[in-house]
Amino acid sequence: MRIDILTLFPGMFDGVLGSSILKRAIDKGFLEVFTHDIRDYSNDRHRRVDDYPFGGGAGMVMMVEPIARCIEHLKGQRNYDAIIMTAPDGEAFNQHKANQLSMFNNIMILCGHYKGIDERVREMFITEEVSIGDYVLSGGELAAMVMTDAIARIIPGVISDGASALSDSFQDNLLSAPVYTRPSDYNGHKVPEVLLSGNDRLISEWRYEQQLSRTRERRPDLLENE
Ligand code: SAH
Fold first, then answer.
1. Is residue 42 part of a domain?
2. Dist CA 159 CA 197 (whole Å)
3. Distance between CA 117 and CA 7 in Å, rounded?
Protein backbone atom coordinates (compact mmCIF):
# COMPACT_ATOMS: atom_id res chain seq x y z
CA MET A 1 0.00 0.00 0.00
CA ARG A 2 1.13 3.52 -0.79
CA ILE A 3 0.21 6.66 1.14
CA ASP A 4 1.02 10.11 -0.24
CA ILE A 5 0.84 12.88 2.32
CA LEU A 6 0.52 16.51 1.23
CA THR A 7 1.81 18.82 3.92
CA LEU A 8 3.52 22.11 4.67
CA PHE A 9 5.66 20.37 7.30
CA PRO A 10 7.13 17.14 5.88
CA GLY A 11 9.77 17.09 8.61
CA MET A 12 7.11 16.33 11.20
CA PHE A 13 6.76 12.80 9.84
CA ASP A 14 10.40 11.69 10.15
CA GLY A 15 10.28 10.44 13.73
CA VAL A 16 6.97 8.67 13.37
CA LEU A 17 7.78 6.94 10.08
CA GLY A 18 11.29 6.07 11.28
CA SER A 19 10.25 4.25 14.46
CA SER A 20 8.53 1.12 15.69
CA ILE A 21 5.85 -0.63 13.67
CA LEU A 22 5.60 1.99 10.93
CA LYS A 23 9.32 1.72 10.29
CA ARG A 24 9.02 -2.06 10.17
CA ALA A 25 6.06 -1.93 7.80
CA ILE A 26 8.06 0.31 5.47
CA ASP A 27 11.30 -1.70 5.76
CA LYS A 28 9.46 -4.94 5.01
CA GLY A 29 7.82 -3.41 1.94
CA PHE A 30 4.21 -3.57 3.17
CA LEU A 31 3.86 0.17 3.15
CA GLU A 32 5.30 3.13 1.24
CA VAL A 33 4.78 6.63 2.57
CA PHE A 34 5.79 9.70 0.58
CA THR A 35 5.48 13.21 1.92
CA HIS A 36 5.07 16.11 -0.52
CA ASP A 37 5.85 19.67 0.47
CA ILE A 38 2.95 21.76 -0.83
CA ARG A 39 5.31 24.76 -1.01
CA ASP A 40 7.18 23.00 -3.84
CA TYR A 41 4.03 23.46 -5.91
CA SER A 42 3.71 27.20 -5.33
CA ASN A 43 4.45 29.41 -8.31
CA ASP A 44 5.05 32.34 -6.00
CA ARG A 45 8.54 33.79 -5.69
CA HIS A 46 8.34 33.43 -1.93
CA ARG A 47 6.79 29.96 -2.12
CA ARG A 48 3.66 31.36 -0.57
CA VAL A 49 0.81 28.91 -0.02
CA ASP A 50 -1.69 30.91 2.04
CA ASP A 51 -3.59 34.16 1.77
CA TYR A 52 -6.11 36.33 3.63
CA PRO A 53 -9.69 35.06 3.80
CA PHE A 54 -12.22 36.66 1.49
CA GLY A 55 -14.78 38.46 3.59
CA GLY A 56 -12.27 39.22 6.30
CA GLY A 57 -11.69 37.63 9.67
CA ALA A 58 -8.73 36.17 11.50
CA GLY A 59 -6.33 33.53 10.22
CA MET A 60 -4.88 32.64 6.85
CA VAL A 61 -6.37 30.24 4.33
CA MET A 62 -4.43 27.69 2.29
CA MET A 63 -4.74 28.53 -1.40
CA VAL A 64 -6.22 26.24 -4.05
CA GLU A 65 -3.49 26.46 -6.68
CA PRO A 66 -0.47 24.82 -5.01
CA ILE A 67 -2.64 22.03 -3.57
CA ALA A 68 -4.38 21.50 -6.91
CA ARG A 69 -1.02 21.31 -8.72
CA CYS A 70 0.31 18.79 -6.24
CA ILE A 71 -2.81 16.60 -6.40
CA GLU A 72 -2.91 16.76 -10.22
CA HIS A 73 0.77 15.86 -10.40
CA LEU A 74 0.24 12.76 -8.24
CA LYS A 75 -2.97 11.75 -10.00
CA GLY A 76 -1.05 11.86 -13.27
CA GLN A 77 1.21 9.10 -11.96
CA ARG A 78 -1.28 6.59 -10.58
CA ASN A 79 -4.91 6.04 -9.67
CA TYR A 80 -5.95 6.88 -6.14
CA ASP A 81 -8.59 4.90 -4.26
CA ALA A 82 -9.19 7.81 -1.91
CA ILE A 83 -8.13 11.44 -1.65
CA ILE A 84 -8.61 12.23 2.00
CA MET A 85 -8.65 15.62 3.63
CA THR A 86 -8.02 15.93 7.35
CA ALA A 87 -10.74 18.17 8.79
CA PRO A 88 -12.32 18.62 12.22
CA ASP A 89 -15.74 18.61 10.54
CA GLY A 90 -15.06 15.37 8.67
CA GLU A 91 -16.32 11.83 9.25
CA ALA A 92 -15.07 10.41 12.57
CA PHE A 93 -12.02 8.19 12.16
CA ASN A 94 -12.39 4.84 13.92
CA GLN A 95 -11.28 1.22 13.62
CA HIS A 96 -13.89 0.50 10.98
CA LYS A 97 -12.55 3.35 8.83
CA ALA A 98 -8.96 2.19 9.39
CA ASN A 99 -9.89 -1.34 8.28
CA GLN A 100 -11.61 0.02 5.19
CA LEU A 101 -8.68 2.28 4.20
CA SER A 102 -6.15 -0.52 4.78
CA MET A 103 -7.69 -2.43 1.83
CA PHE A 104 -6.73 0.31 -0.61
CA ASN A 105 -3.61 0.39 -2.77
CA ASN A 106 -3.10 4.15 -3.09
CA ILE A 107 -4.40 6.90 -0.88
CA MET A 108 -3.60 10.57 -0.54
CA ILE A 109 -3.93 12.48 2.73
CA LEU A 110 -4.07 16.27 2.63
CA CYS A 111 -3.02 18.13 5.76
CA GLY A 112 -4.49 21.56 6.37
CA HIS A 113 -3.01 24.33 8.46
CA TYR A 114 -3.87 27.80 9.70
CA LYS A 115 -7.57 28.64 9.32
CA GLY A 116 -8.06 25.73 6.94
CA ILE A 117 -8.09 25.02 3.22
CA ASP A 118 -9.98 26.91 0.51
CA GLU A 119 -13.35 25.16 0.26
CA ARG A 120 -12.98 24.62 -3.49
CA VAL A 121 -10.29 22.00 -2.83
CA ARG A 122 -12.97 19.88 -1.16
CA GLU A 123 -15.39 20.35 -4.00
CA MET A 124 -12.89 19.60 -6.72
CA PHE A 125 -10.61 16.85 -5.44
CA ILE A 126 -11.51 15.34 -2.09
CA THR A 127 -13.28 11.97 -1.87
CA GLU A 128 -13.38 11.72 1.95
CA GLU A 129 -13.01 14.10 4.85
CA VAL A 130 -11.81 12.59 8.09
CA SER A 131 -11.60 13.94 11.64
CA ILE A 132 -9.65 12.20 14.39
CA GLY A 133 -11.74 13.70 17.19
CA ASP A 134 -13.80 16.60 18.43
CA TYR A 135 -10.96 19.03 19.05
CA VAL A 136 -9.01 21.35 16.80
CA LEU A 137 -5.37 20.64 16.01
CA SER A 138 -3.08 23.27 14.57
CA GLY A 139 -2.53 21.12 11.51
CA GLY A 140 -3.57 17.91 9.81
CA GLU A 141 -0.13 16.29 10.19
CA LEU A 142 -0.84 14.59 13.50
CA ALA A 143 -4.17 13.38 12.14
CA ALA A 144 -2.42 11.95 9.06
CA MET A 145 0.07 10.18 11.32
CA VAL A 146 -2.70 8.73 13.48
CA MET A 147 -4.45 7.40 10.39
CA THR A 148 -1.25 6.04 8.84
CA ASP A 149 -0.35 4.23 12.05
CA ALA A 150 -3.81 2.72 12.54
CA ILE A 151 -3.92 1.61 8.89
CA ALA A 152 -0.39 0.19 8.76
CA ARG A 153 -0.61 -2.04 11.82
CA ILE A 154 -3.53 -4.02 10.42
CA ILE A 155 -1.98 -4.73 7.02
CA PRO A 156 -1.50 -8.53 7.16
CA GLY A 157 2.11 -9.38 7.97
CA VAL A 158 3.03 -6.03 9.51
CA ILE A 159 2.59 -7.17 13.09
CA SER A 160 4.43 -10.48 13.37
CA ASP A 161 1.73 -12.00 15.57
CA GLY A 162 -1.06 -11.49 13.05
CA ALA A 163 -3.70 -12.38 15.61
CA SER A 164 -2.55 -9.58 17.86
CA ALA A 165 -3.91 -6.70 15.78
CA LEU A 166 -7.26 -8.46 15.46
CA SER A 167 -7.60 -8.96 19.22
CA ASP A 168 -7.14 -5.26 19.91
CA SER A 169 -9.86 -3.01 21.25
CA PHE A 170 -12.63 -2.08 18.79
CA GLN A 171 -11.92 -4.84 16.25
CA ASP A 172 -15.11 -6.64 17.29
CA ASN A 173 -16.76 -3.65 18.94
CA LEU A 174 -15.30 -4.77 22.27
CA LEU A 175 -12.54 -3.26 24.35
CA SER A 176 -9.57 -5.50 24.92
CA ALA A 177 -8.97 -7.59 28.06
CA PRO A 178 -6.27 -6.47 30.53
CA VAL A 179 -2.78 -7.86 29.93
CA TYR A 180 -0.04 -8.83 32.39
CA THR A 181 3.58 -9.99 32.25
CA ARG A 182 6.23 -10.98 34.80
CA PRO A 183 6.45 -10.81 37.75
CA SER A 184 3.22 -12.60 38.68
CA ASP A 185 3.27 -10.90 42.08
CA TYR A 186 4.40 -7.27 42.25
CA ASN A 187 4.41 -6.02 45.85
CA GLY A 188 1.28 -8.02 46.59
CA HIS A 189 -0.50 -7.01 43.35
CA LYS A 190 -1.14 -10.40 41.82
CA VAL A 191 -1.88 -11.45 38.26
CA PRO A 192 -5.33 -13.13 37.98
CA GLU A 193 -4.89 -16.81 38.84
CA VAL A 194 -6.55 -18.08 35.65
CA LEU A 195 -3.79 -16.59 33.46
CA LEU A 196 -1.24 -18.77 35.26
CA SER A 197 -3.41 -21.91 34.97
CA GLY A 198 -2.18 -23.00 31.54
CA ASN A 199 -5.80 -23.87 30.65
CA ASP A 200 -6.40 -22.24 27.25
CA ARG A 201 -10.17 -22.67 27.34
CA LEU A 202 -10.51 -21.05 30.77
CA ILE A 203 -8.15 -18.26 29.74
CA SER A 204 -10.06 -17.39 26.61
CA GLU A 205 -13.38 -17.52 28.52
CA TRP A 206 -11.94 -15.18 31.16
CA ARG A 207 -10.63 -12.81 28.49
CA TYR A 208 -13.95 -12.68 26.73
CA GLU A 209 -15.76 -12.02 30.04
CA GLN A 210 -13.31 -9.21 30.75
CA GLN A 211 -13.90 -7.73 27.32
CA LEU A 212 -17.64 -7.77 27.84
CA SER A 213 -17.58 -6.33 31.34
CA ARG A 214 -15.06 -3.61 30.41
CA THR A 215 -17.08 -2.62 27.38
CA ARG A 216 -20.33 -2.55 29.39
CA GLU A 217 -18.68 -0.41 32.04
CA ARG A 218 -16.60 1.97 29.92
CA ARG A 219 -18.15 2.06 26.46
CA PRO A 220 -21.74 0.78 26.52
CA ASP A 221 -22.28 2.68 23.26
CA LEU A 222 -20.13 0.10 21.45
CA LEU A 223 -22.53 -2.70 22.43
CA GLU A 224 -25.54 -0.69 21.33
CA ASN A 225 -24.03 -0.26 17.89
CA GLU A 226 -23.85 -4.04 17.39
N1 SAH B 1 -10.92 26.54 11.14
C2 SAH B 1 -11.03 25.12 11.10
C3 SAH B 1 -9.88 24.46 11.81
C4 SAH B 1 -8.58 24.56 11.09
S5 SAH B 1 -7.35 23.70 11.95
C6 SAH B 1 -12.33 24.71 11.77
O7 SAH B 1 -12.70 25.34 12.74
O8 SAH B 1 -12.91 23.70 11.35
C9 SAH B 1 -6.15 23.48 10.69
C10 SAH B 1 -6.08 22.11 10.06
O11 SAH B 1 -5.79 21.14 11.04
C12 SAH B 1 -7.35 21.64 9.39
O13 SAH B 1 -7.42 22.13 8.08
C14 SAH B 1 -7.17 20.12 9.40
O15 SAH B 1 -6.36 19.70 8.32
C16 SAH B 1 -6.37 19.91 10.69
N17 SAH B 1 -7.21 19.46 11.82
C18 SAH B 1 -7.53 20.18 12.91
N19 SAH B 1 -8.27 19.46 13.76
C20 SAH B 1 -8.43 18.24 13.22
C21 SAH B 1 -9.11 17.06 13.62
N22 SAH B 1 -9.80 16.98 14.76
N23 SAH B 1 -9.06 15.99 12.80
C24 SAH B 1 -8.39 16.04 11.63
N25 SAH B 1 -7.73 17.15 11.20
C26 SAH B 1 -7.74 18.23 11.98
1. yes
2. 27
3. 12
Site to substitute for ligand 1 among 60, 64, 86, most atoms within 8 A of C-beta: 86
- State the distance from the centre of ligand 1 to the C-alpha of 86, rounded, in angstroms: 7
104: amino acid identity, one letter: F
3 state SS of 178: coil
Q: 136: Cβ below 6 Å to ligand 1?
A: yes
- Ligand 1 neighbourhood includes 140 CB (under 6 angstroms): yes
Q: Which one, of 35, 34, 33, 37, lies nearest residue 8 by Cα? A: 37
- For 38-80, what is each residue's pLDDT tens digit? 999 999 999 999 999 999 999 999 999 999 999 999 999 999 9
Residues 68 and 178 in one domain: no
Range of the domain at 76: 2-152
